[in-house]
């Protein structure tokens, strides 16, 4: 059986895209290892072998030392194909490629645009860093066998530079979500995902303050001062904070929710990104309150409630509309679920992933 290895020094070992989708799917055909850096040890789940290089002390340690450990483990595995999931692993990919291995890079996000959205970097520095990384990215990825993009827009960027690329979208594995039977009874809304300022957390917590409802938030704060600020808001009294949760609890949250919230800020990266959680909301059959981006309207075929993500009053009004029109929200959820069945599901993306590996291995 052909041996392949997925490498990440940043993502959690049970990352939905990397483990639950790509690695599990590929393990049907290949001998799959997944190198991670979380200090939780080695294990094997669903024929995917986890290899842990240890948790880094901080960001500096991760970049300087963890990447070296990842390379060492990668060489010990001696895989035919190495599939990289982090920009900081690009130098490792170049080394492995020179040694005769086949390399796939997975571009989860448009990093140059993501850099431009960093609120803690001044504008001049952001533009310079984005420009430099963009040049480095194109130069490096041309050396690899294949690049996988998380969205069609990212794919088009690479195709313009004659880089072999295909999009593998973060559409959900729908079976578990399709089994949900949301009740549309309680005035409960949910936000599931990472908790950054640009994800709209402040606005939704302020919005819930003025609505007779509960807000479930599941995710992890990555900035302590921002976390303290959010928890100091009056609307936090109506928040049921679950922290980082697993798949079963996510399903329970969705089942009890009237609508899911995906009001990301209009940053260069988010406007063109496919929000994973929105597809999970769609698959679960609940209503959706989303940013009024043209892409989101297109994906939902207008069967959602769209708001200015920076306008707290609009978000609050959208919540109130859901509460007062539960039958309409239920019908919207049913239509969204049909879109998932027809278009936005992992099975279709899995077929594309298999074809990419066939192509790379045949070269």
Kindly describe this structure.
By secondary structure, this protein is α/β, with parallel strands linked by helices. The chain folds into 2 domains: 3-108 and 142-169 and 346-362, Glycogen Phosphorylase B (Rossmann fold, 3-Layer(aba) Sandwich); 175-342, Rossmann fold, CATH 3.40.50.2000. The protein contains 16 helices and 14 strands. It has helices at 16-26, 59-77, 90-98, 111-116, 123-141, 152-159, 175-178, 201-208, 224-232, 247-255, 268-271, 276-284, 294-300, 312-324, 326-342, 346-362; strands at residues 3-7, 31-36, 43-45, 48-52, 81-84, 102-107, 146-149, 165-167, 188-192, 214-218, 239-243, 259-262, 287-291, 305-307. The strands form 2 sheets. An 8-stranded mixed beta sheet has the order 3-4-2-1-5-6-7-8, with helices on both faces. Strands 11-10-9-12-13-14 form a 6-stranded parallel beta sheet, with helices on both faces. Helix 8 (201-208) crosses helix 14 and helix 12 (276-284) crosses helix 15. The longest helix has 19 residues, at 59-77. 42% of the residues are buried. The model has no long low-confidence stretch (mean pLDDT 94).
